[in-house]
Amino acid sequence: MDLPVAPPAFDATTGPGAHRRADLGADIGVGCALLLLELTALAGIFWLWFLTGFDLDPAETATAAPLWPHPAAVGGIGVLALAAAALAARARALVTMVTQAVVVVLTAVVVFGGATAQSHQDRLCRDTPSAADCQDNR
């Protein structure tokens, strides 16, 4: 004897209204991988700026290059982290979203701190050209 089978009244696991959370293992893996890549890029940008202050000639006095191009590169990493955080929020990947939000805050602090420090140095060199670390003082 065949009994009639009624369709389910409500199924939230399929269709356009499905809101499933991302797999936790994949979420942690992606969050850690993105964090590692972004911190490596930030360390590389810092290292490139840091190397501008070195000169192997002992007769020359090395001065560090201005910071202005470097906060722009750090800001680019922050924009990419913001986009990754938005995508993670849409996929409901909580760990990735939180790590990317931390990277966004970190890059914002670095960009604004670097811009403030370079602006202060530029103002100091404009007001007192003979000050230490001014480009005309070589």
Instruction: Supply the helix-strand structural class.
Output: mainly alpha
Helix % is: 55-70%
Overall mean pLDDT stands at 82
Number of helices: 3
User: How many individual β-strands?
Assistant: 0
Tell me about the biggest sheet?
A: none
Unreliable residue stretches: none
Task: Provide the gyration radius in Å.
Answer: 25 Å
- One letter per element, helices H and strands E, the order comes to HHH
Characterize the overall form.
Answer: elongated
End-to-end separation in angstroms reads: 99 Å
Approximately how much beta-strand content do the residues carry?
under 5%
Q: What's this, in brief?
A:
The chain contains three helices and no strands. The protein is an all-alpha fold and 138 residues long.
Describe what you observe in this structure.
The protein is an all-alpha fold. The chain is 61% helix and 0% strand. It contains three helices and no strands. The protein is elongated and about 100 Å long. It starts with 23 loop residues before the first helix and ends in an 11-residue tail after the last helix.
Which secondary structure elements does this structure contain, and how are they paired or packed?
Layout: H1 24-51, H2 69-90, H3 94-127
Helix pairs in contact: 1-2, 1-3, 2-3
Quick tags:
138 residues; mainly alpha
